[in-house]
Design a protein that fits this description.
Helix content: over 70%
Shape: flat
Strand content: under 5%
Oligomer: single chain
Number of helices: 6
Number of strands: 0
Length: about 170
C-alpha cells in the first residue's frame, strides 16, 4: 500500500511539472527584433560619445583661434556641425528607447497569444519583414543618374531585355 501511494505521488508530481507550461516573465529577451533594437541603441550611444568628443575638440579650437582670422569662422562652422550631429544622435537615442519599450510590450503580448494558441514564438516571418524594412530604411536615398546608366551598361544582354520588358509594362 505504501509503495502504491508513493508511486501515485511521484506520478502526480511528474505530471504536474511536465504538464503545465510556465510563461516566460521576460520573453522579449528571446525576440530578435528587440535584440536588434538594443544593438542599434548601443551603437548610437557610442556614436554620441564620439560626437561629443569631436564637438569639445572643435570648441577648444574655436576658443583658441586668433581673433580676426579666417580660422575662427572655419572652427565655428565645424563646431556647430559637430553640435548638430550630437543633437541628432541624442534625439535618435530617445527614439530607440521609446521603440525598445514599445517592442517590449508588443513582444510580451504576442508571446502570451502564441503561448495560448500553442504557436511558435518569435515568428520568423515577422523578423524577415523587419529586416527587409530595416534594409529599406538604411538604403541610400540618392538617385545618381550617371551611376544608373553605368550599372545598366554593365548588365548582360538578357538582364537588359528583362529590364526593358518591365519598363514597357
Amino acid at each position: 500500500m505504501e509503495q502504491k501511494s508513493l508511486f501515485v505521488f511521484i506520478l502526480l508530481s511528474v505530471l504536474a511539472f511536465s504538464g503545465c507550461e510556465k510563461a516566460d516573465p521576460n520573453p522579449e529577451l528571446k525576440d530578435p527584433i528587440y535584440a536588434d533594437l538594443q544593438d542599434q541603441l548601443s551603437s548610437t550611444e557610442k556614436a554620441l560619445v564620439e560626437s561629443n568628443k569631436n564637438a569639445d575638440e572643435q570648441k577648444n579650437l574655436l576658443e583658441n583661434a586668433p581673433a580676426q582670422s579666417g580660422q575662427a569662422a572655419v572652427y565655428r562652422k565645424r563646431y556647430f556641425q559637430a553640435q548638430s550631429i550630437s543633437d541628432r544622435l541624442s534625439q535618435q537615442i530617445k527614439y530607440w528607447k521609446v521603440r525598445i519599450e514599445e517592442r517590449k510590450l508588443l513582444s510580451r503580448k504576442s508571446y502570451l497569444l502564441s503561448l495560448k494558441d500553442k504557436k511558435s514564438w518569435p515568428d520568423p516571418k515577422e523578423y524577415e519583414i523587419y529586416l527587409s524594412e530595416k534594409k529599406l530604411r538604411q538604403a541610400k536615398v540618392e538617385w545618381d543618374a550617371k551611376k544608373r546608366i553605368e550599372d545598366f551598361k554593365n548588365l548582360s544582354a538578357s538582364e537588359k531585355k528583362g529590364a526593358a520588358e518591365k519598363k514597357e509594362e
